[in-house]
Amino acid sequence: MVVKDVITWTSIVVAYSRSGDMRSAEEVFGRCPVKDMVAWTAMVTGYAQNAMPVKALEVFDQMAALGMVVDEVSLTGAISACAQLGAVRRAVWVQEIAERTGFGNNVVVGSGLVDMYAKCGLIDEARKVFDGMQEKNVYTYSSMIAGLASHGRASEAIALFEEMVNRANVEPNHVTFIGVLMACSHAGMVGEGRYYFAQMKDKYGIMPSADHYACMVDLLGRAGLVDEALDLVRSMTLKPHGGVWGALLGACRIHGKSEIAKVVAEHLFKLEPEGIGNYVLLSNILASAGKWDEVSKVRKLMRKQRLKKDPAVSLFEGRDGLVHQFFAGDNAHPRTQEIKKTLLELAAKLKLEGYVPILSSIVYDVNDEEKQRLLIGHSEKLALSFALLTFGSGCTIRIIKNLRICDDCHLFMRLVSRVESVEIIVRDNVRFHHFKNGECSCGGFW
Ligand SMILES: [Zn+2]
Ligand SMILES: [Zn+2]
Q1: CA 358 to ligand 1 center in whole angstroms
Q2: Separation of 29 CA from ligand 1 center, angstroms?
Q3: Is 136 a residue whose pLDDT tops 70?
Q4: Which of 75, 230, 348, 414 is the one with CA 20 to 30 A from 33?
Q5: Residue pair 222/188 in contact by the 8 Å Cβ criterion
Q6: In Å, how far are 98, 239, 386, 398 from 316, measured between CA atoms?
Q7: Residue of 210, 211, 212 whose CA lies nearest to 199
Q8: Helix or strand or coil: residue 178?
Q9: Domain DYW, which positions (predicted)?
Q10: pLDDT per residue over 202-251, tens digit each?
Q11: Rg of the chain on CA atoms, in Å
Q12: 292 alpha carbon to ligand 2 midpoint, in Å?
């Protein structure tokens, strides 16, 4: 093309970011001679949708610094980025911009804010935004219900669902039911879960997807009905995905069902050959049942597959609003020496309170000393140590973790919340854990 205008350039940026190639999108954006608001917005949205939230907020900042007008789309991108990061200070800042630019009453922006605050661990703030919204649609309700569910506030979630369908006359969709079933599951409400699962199809004509089955399996499994959960999976007409089998494997761990676990793991190994978490979980279950021969078989399998550990990462928003990243066993943080020193002192203090590291959380074939060394380097512990270092006792600490929290870190957090009188909120890949006075909101089931 001889003449390329900003629309042409922006279309290419959008096309690259939709195909997940942000590097090429960046390059095209860089070469675009005149950038308008739509072009900048395309970059914010692209980064947010491709799970690069830090970049999304950087570009959003640049837009603001250049005095660009923000619209519903760029705001939604920034809101989604804050939700992914769980960054509270940034979240408040984005809400201020939304209100200042006249999008405070926009239903799309508002629904995003509800989701954002819930994912940042500020569930009451999410509720405040929700209650203040004049117009609410199915996305607004679904975000609020899912938020309440992930924070373990099941009865509130169910009450809101009833209000939605009976008083507000908003028709639920498949996303709404994920939230409702999740709420039932986290609270062990088996009867209610069965009721809504049936109602979804019979009353609203929504065919359950594999995700809904995963919620039901989780619900039955947590409640100890592992055999029934297995029957449900076997009765499925659609093909169960990794989430369904994964929920069942989790239930086998909680209730020590090593025989069912072996069957379930076979399916998972086929569906997710790279997923090391499944091997770890199975070998933990077998180890708890004392089946050491089989544990070593699983370990051999892991070595044969040359599985690399999923990179565990924890995020923590510092005083300055900067998001600090911690990887397991990482020395990259500029204050790594202090962080480690604080952590070792903390562990020593907890040991006086009866803390014994849960070595079975490490499945590698290494000696106990090495296991202790690996455990103390878990990413959420590094983030916690940095938080205590910079905020001190008596504060609320919010940590975002990309994987399931391990038994040892869970115990560690519980004890720290008591010994240091801090409230710790950890978001792992499924739910929130609120640690306070030595207890966790999940009640030990996660
Ligand atoms: Zn851990
Ligand atoms: Zn917990």
Answers
A1: 9
A2: 40
A3: yes
A4: 75
A5: yes
A6: 24, 38, 9, 7
A7: 212
A8: helix
A9: 354-446
A10: 999 999 999 999 999 999 998 999 999 999 999 999 999 999 999 999 89
A11: 23
A12: 28
Query: What separation in Å is there between the alpha carbon of 392 and the centre of ligand 2?
Result: 22
* Contact by Cβ (8 Å): 347, 111: no
- Helices 226-235 and 258-271: crossing angle, nearest 10°? 40
pLDDT in tens, 337-391: 999 999 999 999 999 988 999 988 876 778 889 999 999 999 999 999 999 999 8
Complete DSSP assignment for 372-390 = HHHHHT-HHHHHHHHHHHH
Section 431-440 average pLDDT: 92
10 Å Cβ neighbour count for 215?
A: 27
- Ligand 1 centroid–CA 361 distance in Å is 7
Distance between Cα 38 and ligand 2 center (Å): 43
Outline where DSSP puts E strands in 231-349: 313-317, 323-327
Of all ligands present, the nearest one to the C-alpha of 380 is 1
Distances (CA, A) of 17 to 44, 48, 79, 311: 10, 10, 18, 24
Residue with tokens 């020593």: 348
Antiparallel, parallel or unpaired: β 423-427 and 432-436: antiparallel
Q: How far is the CA of 253 from the centre of ligand 1 (A)?
A: 16
Any idea which of 182-196, 318-332, 420-434 has the lowest mean pLDDT? 318-332
29-46 per-position pLDDT tens digit: 999 888 888 999 999 999
Q: Residue 52's closest CA among 29, 25, 88, 32?
A: 25
Q: Tens of pLDDT along 280-317?
A: 889 888 888 888 889 888 888 887 877 666 678 999 99
Give the pLDDT of residue 439: 92
Residue 4 CB partners (closer than 8 Å, separation 6+): none
CA of 69 to the centre of ligand 2 (A): 42
The rounded percent of the chain whose pLDDT value lies above 70 is 99
Q: How far apart are CA 363 and CA 381, in angstroms?
A: 18
Contact (CB, 8 A) for 415 and 389:
no
pLDDT at 170: 96
CA angle 390, 392, 397 (to 5 degrees): 80
